[in-house]
DNA sequence: TCGCCTTTGAAGACG
DNA sequence: CGTCTTCAAAGGCGA
């Protein structure tokens, strides 16, 4: 069954043929062009790194394998080692190489659908897509899976057939809906966006949800709001479909994240149901993106304020009203905003859609990767999947994480601009609480972790299992090794701050990592050993590939690899890329072995 | 039908 | 300033 889902997307994977082809590479390539953002670029690289078409497929497969293996066996070692090695190494290297446009060009194929299919992840699409819709609103319905990957994002941008876009617009959310094909059964996240979807859409997703029905084809009419009829700013891009919200609002800013966000799911900030939004974030993106990227939302962002905005609760994408999600939005939009009598205000507030918190780096990552993971493994439970994702997160290289952190940062900025008055506190108490129990459980888990740690220290592993849901073993991966303690913070912290993605700081982080997370610790232990060996080998061997995987997270690897990768002639790399791929793949193994050694 | 579970990160609350 | 709590996404599962 799983296969099914994958299948499609996979097209990518599976098909082998697909590997290269899929790629959306081509798309990616384009994206780059479009993107043109400075920041973006880096991302792209990274993204590219992660996976490109071929690489993607390969990597994806690997990942899957890893995951599966891990799932299957939580066995620690393998999973850990394999993961790190397989996944990372290849990816990075590949990414780097693949990116090259030329390469893409070649790769590109006419197949529309194919494109999207491509590798699920390709890179992080971040690149350029500025889309933005923001999904802060909750409502989105959406889609399920959420699987959109960044990659998609790229694509969209690139290819985005106008038609497609149009469609999207039309069926805003529907886009997804519309294409059931996409969704279908499995959620196949990966797949995603079929052509229907706007390339961006995926990203936008959020918006889509929102968009929904009403939304007019933005393209067509550039910017009139369906609702208000107000003309929007000319560029959709600017607008950001994302924030549909205010549609009327003119200028909302696109959500930086938008692109990140996967479409399917909900948008981060979803729009109010009624709200309309631009569906085509993609369009918008460019301009906005760049601006966003640059981090300046200002113009758009700022502006937005006016009309709709509202600081207060307004209809904004992010806004979701739990209660009444839908209602509010549309209507409320301007009117509501306009503050009515206090009473009304209260009402609104009550109803008011609540603005969701901006997603943090990990959440963004989850959104993107969830689908993949789901596709890979049979598990469906989010809890199990999240564990896996957590593990994968740790395995990400700093750079990769940095991307997400940056995105998260932008998202927060955007969110703050959109909802200046909003505070996390606003959402407090909305969910039910579970406090103590949870804590207890946590504490228990912690204990377990500690125990695990102890074990680890001693060397044993085991613990993991505990965490995992008994049922699904498969996943446990993460734990596999790990288990252990967690101290997440550190790494994250390091990263976090680091807006600078690349920042090699990673090293700094690393240390932290050690302290913090359990896994990391566990990994550390492993890594440390491996690492040492790796270092030697690495330096001598020179190929990064090997190391990255192992070290990747914990250690400096991240930096290393990248450095290595980057250092080489980048573009030309393209050529290499192909070659490289194979090599890389091979490497992993070798690496592994090395590490083992 | 609702809340739990699970992950990481951010931000608020509290001491 | 440090620690703890809540929420963000997501979807199966149990009550």
From TrEMBL:
Domain of life: Eukaryota
Biased composition (Low complexity): 69-83, 334-344, 440-450, 487-506
Biased segments, Gly residues type: 8-29
PROSITE patterns documented for this protein: HMG_BOX_2
Residue ranges: DNA binding: 355-423
Biased composition (Basic and acidic residues): 85-104
Keyword terms: Activator, DNA-binding, Nucleus, Repressor, Transcription, Transcription regulation, Wnt signaling pathway
Cross-referenced SUPFAM superfamilies: HMG-box
A GO biological process held by the record: canonical Wnt signaling pathway
Similarity field: Belongs to the TCF/LEF family.
Protein name: Transcription factor 7 like 1
Record organism: Ursus americanus
Name of encoding gene: TCF7L1
């Amino acid at each position: 069954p799983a296969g099914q889902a994958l299948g499609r997307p996979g097209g990518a994977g599976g098909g082998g043929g697909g590997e290269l082809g899929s790629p959306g590479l081509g798309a990616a390539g384009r994206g780059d062009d479009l993107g043109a953002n400075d920041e973006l670029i880096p991302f792209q690289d990274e993204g590219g790194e992660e996976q490109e078409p071929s690489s993607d497929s390969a990597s994806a497969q690997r990942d899957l394998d890893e995951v599966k293996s891990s799932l299957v066996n939580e066995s620690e070692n393998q999973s850990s080692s394999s993961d790190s090695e397989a996944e990372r190494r290849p990816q990075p290297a590949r990414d780097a190489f693949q990116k090259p446009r030329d390469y893409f060009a070649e790769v590109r194929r006419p197949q529309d659908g194919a494109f999207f299919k491509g590798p699920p992840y390709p890179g992080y699409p971040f690149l350029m897509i500025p889309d933005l819709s923001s999904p802060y609103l909750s409502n989105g319905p959406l889609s399920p899976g959420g699987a959109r990957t960044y990659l998609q994002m790229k694509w969209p941008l690139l290819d985005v057939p106008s038609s497609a876009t149009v469609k999207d617009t039309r069926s805003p959310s529907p886009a997804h809906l519309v294409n059931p094909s996409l969704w279908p059964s499995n959620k196949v996240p990966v797949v995603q966006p079929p052509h229907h979807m706007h390339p961006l859409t995926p990203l936008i997703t959020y918006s889509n949800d929102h968009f929904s029905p009403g939304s007019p084809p933005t393209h067509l009419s550039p910017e009139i709001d369906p609702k208000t009829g107000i003309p929007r700013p000319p560029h959709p891009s600017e607008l950001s479909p994302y924030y549909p919200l205010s549609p009327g609002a003119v200028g909302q800013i696109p959500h930086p994240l938008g692109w990140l966000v996967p479409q399917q799911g909900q948008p981060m900030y979803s729009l109010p149901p009624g709200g309309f939004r631009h569906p085509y974030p993609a369009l918008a993106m460019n301009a906005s993106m760049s601006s966003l990227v640059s981090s300046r939302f200002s113009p758009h962002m700022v502006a937005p304020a006016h009309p709709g905005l509202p600081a207060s609760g307004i209809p904004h994408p992010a806004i979701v009203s739990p209660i009444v999600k839908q209602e509010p939005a549309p209507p409320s939009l301007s009117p509501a905003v306009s503050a009515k009598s206090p009473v009304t205000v209260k009402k609104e507030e009550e109803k008011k859609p609540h603005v969701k918190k901006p997603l943090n780096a990990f959440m963004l990552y989850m959104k993107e990767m969830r689908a993949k993971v789901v596709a890979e493994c049979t598990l469906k439970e989010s809890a199990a999947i999240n564990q896996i994702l957590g593990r994968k997160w740790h395995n990400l290289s700093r750079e990769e994480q940095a991307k997400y952190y940056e995105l998260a940062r932008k998202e927060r900025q955007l969110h703050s601009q959109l909802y200046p008055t909003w505070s996390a506190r606003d959402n407090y108490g909305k969910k039910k609480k579970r406090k103590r129990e949870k804590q207890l459980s946590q504490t228990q888990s912690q204990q377990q972790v500690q125990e695990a740690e102890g074990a680890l220290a001693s060397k044993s592993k085991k613990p993991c299992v505990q965490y995992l849901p008994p049922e699904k073993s498969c996943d446990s991966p993460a734990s596999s090794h790990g288990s252990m303690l967690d101290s997440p913070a550190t790494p994250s912290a390091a990263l976090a701050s680091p807006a600078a993605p690349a920042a090699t700081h990673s090293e700094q982080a690393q240390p932290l990592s050690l302290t913090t997370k359990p896994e990391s610790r566990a990994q550390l232990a492993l890594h440390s050993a491996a690492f040492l060996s790796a270092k030697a080998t690495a330096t001598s061997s020179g190929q990064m590939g090997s190391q990255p995987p192992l070290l990747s997270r914990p250690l400096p690897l991240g930096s290393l690899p990248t450095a290595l990768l980057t250092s080489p002639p980048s573009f030309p790399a393209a050529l290499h890329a192909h070659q490289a791929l194979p090599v890389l793949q091979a490497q992993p193994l070798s690496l592994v072995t090395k590490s083992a050694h």
